[in-house]
Backbone:
């Protein structure tokens, strides 16, 4: 039976307020441009722009910001039937970006009682989960209850219906209580996923120690994962398969404006390539190329590139 | 003995994010301009611009937003020795303005675990309070603990040192738990104040019923207040004195852009006039003129007018 | 018009679990006897036993313990029409007593999310307040919200209907957040009361310093109080009146079993005497005699003496 | 290498206050006898009395009740090196028993901010876990954070060191937020355990539906469990093994006083028998016999029988 969706992403949806005037501290930025943000939203947007059939499960504030987020996603073709409006007065998270220089980017996250962490397990619909080929869990959704339980409910349905489970670690500091807590839920989740993607720093959070790739993948391959991607920033990335392959992914040159959004565009293009039957090696190139494009643009969500742009960059730089 | 300050204001400090593109719903506003906000901050700025010696007691977030707020106030001449940085990770409140039309303005307040409500009674310095002639309590500071207790601590010291206590009701919905709670603390506070200023709607919150001016002032004049100002929006305002005077304040014409900030500029100019020995009648004109000027401008804090501008408008329109 | 009640008490109702085997640490006590407890409940029971018409305003847990408390009070003649069952799953506070020796008594209070602190201002009925001559506020009811606001609502109605307000400080450590908080609400409440009763230690909490009686009463007589009773344990007590009288109250000898309950029996008999037109001097004797009787008995609530027993002890020891 | 412990139990420790006068509603019970309680404590006591080497991991209140609990356990030979005193003011849970008749027993649990739910993952010592042959997780420890994370930390260390993991469901209503939450953590935990023991009602909580044994075990045998025991009260119990055996366990006659404590004595004797190389069939008899003895006695913890008493009852009733 044909599935309705290629991918459903699950988790955080927020408002990005990006410094309009940059190369200065945020205290001196007087104007901010509003974008939709949050890793699983960005990946939904990125994969949707690449032509995939995508849905989003999450909870947004029942106000102008939440309505903007939901409408924006619907406008780029994402199915928002399970993008729920919060009914208890919770807010949309805010991410203010500070771009002091291309090398010094930071974000200021406001995540007090944000709607996305109030998604409840009772709100997850088995019927919706079974309509998709893949589901992507974004790690921040595990940072608090009841969203954490909602994620485990998604996983339960996904396993029941043989939906492939992708886990994007997406570690965001301000909502976790302790490193011990992060490690516990990241490892519980990773052990149940088919594919795990994250930076080396994020895998360190998963293991609650400064780890090492070979040890990390040896641990996880005892459980369900069959593909693990570990990103090392400007040094490239590595993909590991359960049957022992190690594929070394390079990076592409870019005229860097800021570093935000690289991970989400990477994940989007990587998933697109895998879903279209490309090899892991090519998928890593797609990820790296998409990241190179996004870091040269002002936003994270709007800058998600097209397949043509990605292929052009690969062709250009692989020469 | 000469006092160091004419006025110290106490309470909420926040970030205003004002729609740059307006006459549309906020969902369609894509750029926001950042200003310092919060009623007692605006009144501190307003009175400081009018030449008064002013201090501010409050707590701001220990991040880029909090630093911006404190620096902005210091730059306009406000004493910020008791503007404290929060050390527990609380945030700055956000006020997003929506200007659909001059008649349809609304605000979206994000006030989850905001730093201003975490000012503690132990942080109030008796020495600072005794250096001022007047203290202005802004009602929102009573909306939660421990800020509520900090306000009562301020009042205790102010009474001890014969500092005049002004109470600006400044009712802001999202932080109060119930109307009963608002009414209880508004009336406790009003009974201990020398001057009470608010809109008719705010006095209704104080009384927890749709009240009527004569009854309101009869109730409050049993206690400490000697001057009560009740504002009726475009219909003007009334000042009542304990010895039975009723002064009818008019409004001035304005090319209205938005309605935000009218109350704070009104209070600033009214207090300035009283502090300079003008009659209540003239003080009401000052308030009304300042409000007329601010509603024609984009911001609340930056638009606070000068004495010359206020006097010019009065002269012009009183002809 | 004849009032239905002589006294309504307001505040904490709990379960006392008194060590059956005593003169040992609680770890070695294996059996506990159950009694109704809480200062305002004990005073309601005490005054009711002395023949006064008494009501109780408070909230009890909706379980076996709460039902026991309400039924016990009703059985001794207290009006419990406004003794409300909690509907949100809160519990009854527990007080375990430890009697190591008559000189070494301590209590272990369990007061996590107790029902009595969840009385809401909206639940206070103006009609009920206006039916009583006196109302007694017990200080612990000010320790948390919304009970704190419910107390202020009671006071508002009492002032409106000229009901005499008695404030029994009843300081109980575990529910207050800080000494500054206690001092703020104790002084706000005391300034609005007609009669204030407490130990010297409790007045120190009110003033947030080690105070001295003359200074304490000078401060409070600036406001509404007309009678202040300060108790000094085994050294006796002093009553101060606004017109300058100081009455020195003695203590009576007793075969002390434990020290719990002395304050509540003191307050009960003192109020009884005042309500029956006796002089302050005689009322102090009544209080001291009732305390002497209760400390020789095992419980606080059941041991409340009769008028005859009090008068007998006074006659005996005043010889 | 010889392990120091046969069993370490993990979870809730509390105070049981058992009605001294029974066959009446609790409102009419005026005396309570104090015992140590909590399922994993009772199982530690039960197995220790049966001669096993036992430790207990948990957190108790830093007061007379917590000290009583820890001392009582140490006195019956349990290792309490990792029975930690809470340092944040949390209390000991209270369980009041009501015995209206042998058929109508109920409990009233007070579990607001109880110390046992504040055990933190950072407090779990890998060295301690690796010293035991078996670890028993009691389900209530999963009901809240950070205790829930502490349990997952225990499991992580146990899996690393090949310690057998037993999961006793022990469902206790008042601490869970929703049935969905219970089901999620019960199933996550059960999938990682070697042995799962519970009543049919508790397995229904695990599955969040009225389930059926064959389906339950089919689900769980997909994961790690190799032995599942489902108890049906007076109708007996069933043990299921991964290799397809079903063993039908009978019940023994008893002069029932109350039904409390049956499950913990059952688990204790069952584990003892398995640990001593007896067949599952005999272990089920041990469990049933121990339960029959405990329900005829007043307490849960003190009544745990000896091996001789268990064997005598089996011999007597199996004739």
Residues:
């Amino acid at each position: 039976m044909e599935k309705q969706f290629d991918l459903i992403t699950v988790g955080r949806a927020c408002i990005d307020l990006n410094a309009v005037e940059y190369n200065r501290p945020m205290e001196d930025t007087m104007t901010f441009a509003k974008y939709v943000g949050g890793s699983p939203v960005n990946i939904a947007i990125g994969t949707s722009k690449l032509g995939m059939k995508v849905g989003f499960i999450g909870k947004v504030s029942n106000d102008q910001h939440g309505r903007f987020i939901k409408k924006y996603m619907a406008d780029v073709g994402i199915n928002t039937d399970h993008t729920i409006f919060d009914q208890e007065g919770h807010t949309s998270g805010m991410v203010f970006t500070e771009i002091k220089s291309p090398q010094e980017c930071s974000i200021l996250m406001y995540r007090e009682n944000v709607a996305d962490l109030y998604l409840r397990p009772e709100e997850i619909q088995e019927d919706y989960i079974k309509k998709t080929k893949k589901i992507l869990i974004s790690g921040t959704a595990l940072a608090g209850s009841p969203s954490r339980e909602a994620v485990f409910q998604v996983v339960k349905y996904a396993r029941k219906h043989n939906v492939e489970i992708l886990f994007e670690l997406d570690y965001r500091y301000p909502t976790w209580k302790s490193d011990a807590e992060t490690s516990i839920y990241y490892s519980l989740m990773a052990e149940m996923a088919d594919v795990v993607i994250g930076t080396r720093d994020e895998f360190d959070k998963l293991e609650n120690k400064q780890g090492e790739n070979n040890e990390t993948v040896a641990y996880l391959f005892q459980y369900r994962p069959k593909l693990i991607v570990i990103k090392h920033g400007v040094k490239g990335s590595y993909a590991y398969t359960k049957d022992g392959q190690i594929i070394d992914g390079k990076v592409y040159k870019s005229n860097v404006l800021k570093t935000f959004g690289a991970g989400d565009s990477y994940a989007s293009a990587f998933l697109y390539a895998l879903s279209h039957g490309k090899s892991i090696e090519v998928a890593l190139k797609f990820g790296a190329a998409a990241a190179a494009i996004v870091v040269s643009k002002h936003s994270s969500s709007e800058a998600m590139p097209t397949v043509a742009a990605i292929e052009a960059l690969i062709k250009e730089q692989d020469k």
Remarks:
- Chain B has a mean pLDDT of 95.
- The domain at 5-317 of chain B is CATH 3.40.1190.20 (UDP-N-acetylmuramoyl-L-alanine:D-glutamate ligase).
- DSSP finds ten helices and 13 strands in chain B.
- The CA atoms of residues 178 and 317 of chain B lie 42 Å apart.
